[in-house]
Amino acid sequence: MNRNDLRRVDLNLLIVFETLMHERSVTRAAEKLFLGQPAISAALARLRSLFDDPLFVRTGRSMEPTARAMEIAALLSPALDSISTAVSRAADFHPATSTAVFRIGLSDDVEFGLLPPLIKRLRAEAPGVVLVIRRTNYLLMPALLASGEISVGVAYTEELPANAKRKVLRRSKPKLLRADAAPGALSLDDYCSRPHALVSFAGDLSGFVDRELEKLGRKRRVVLALPQFNGLGTLLAGTDIVATVPDYTAAALTSAGGVRAEELPLPTQTFELHMAWRGAQDNDPAERWLRSRIQMFCGDPDSLT
């Protein structure tokens, strides 16, 4: 096919194809693209005719891509990224008048500890923009970025899609959070003997602290596991339960009163909090503005270099 032949190709069909590759479902693709299922089914029929291949074969409740579909997707994804970048570079962004919708993925600790000051800044500069916050973590981030459900995310990350970009936003140290009135800092013995609360997205009863304690031949006892940080300070109030949380989350909780933070009585490493974003939107003026604000108001000074 030469470039003149591209005139008969509807770019929207390629967007539908990419969405079907991610969702493996006509229903979910329709929801993602805000279209009806008949429209997605019709687009799929046209795609099958265009590529002369079934593209997707139903397997139970899922649609599995054919070998030809996998080959097309490998070529199409970077091409769509390039088109998106070319179009976005041509558009100016004016925060004061923009009505853009930004889709951001945040882990719970970031949403609780760092989102409030970011919201205040964004509202001051761009009162017309809309923020859609999605809950994410190192397990969910790759799929959310790859599918375009978020354009940028802030969390501790590991593996990311091949075209994603990432930078260290801040280096965080854990803090000990307590609500009792006993004077002085807790010793390691006190720390291990106290009951502990743990915030865990997956409902785990152990975390990095337990690995560090194991190196010292020590253990702690978790008596409360929570899915989020909101309300943690209230739950600690009037009890001898302690919690180990990121320093920025500790700052948000102590500012509300009722709890205080101190250093842990054991050596711990710092953790890198990352900002990751879709490579296709690396040069998008609106997304660059958003990332600069996330860096300024969620990052530490080292992230600005």
- How many domains, in number, for the residues? 3
Number of β-strand runs: 12
Query: What is the CATH superfamily of the largest domain?
Result: Periplasmic binding protein-like II
Oligomer: single chain
CATH topology descriptor of the largest domain: D-Maltodextrin-Binding Protein, domain 2
Which CATH architecture of the largest domain is right?
3-Layer(aba) Sandwich
Shape: elongated
Task: Identify low-pLDDT runs.
Answer: none
Q: Give the ordered list of helices and strands.
A: HHHEEHEHHEHEEEHEHEHEHEEH
Overall SS class: alpha/beta
- CATH structural class of the largest domain: Alpha Beta
Short synopsis of the structure:
With 305 residues, this protein is an alpha/beta fold.
Descriptive overview:
The structure is a single chain. The chain is an alpha/beta fold and 305 residues long. It folds into three domains: 3-89, Arc Repressor Mutant, subunit A; 101-169 and 271-304, D-Maltodextrin-Binding Protein, domain 2, CATH 3.40.190; 174-262, D-Maltodextrin-Binding Protein, domain 2, CATH 3.40.190.10. Helices cover 41% and strands 21% of the residues. It has twelve helices and twelve strands. The chain has a five-stranded mixed beta sheet. Strands 9-8-10-7-11 form a five-stranded mixed beta sheet. The chain has a two-stranded antiparallel ribbon with strand order 1-2. The longest helix has 23 residues, at 67-89. The chain is elongated. It starts with 10 loop residues before the first helix and ends in a 7-residue tail after the last helix.
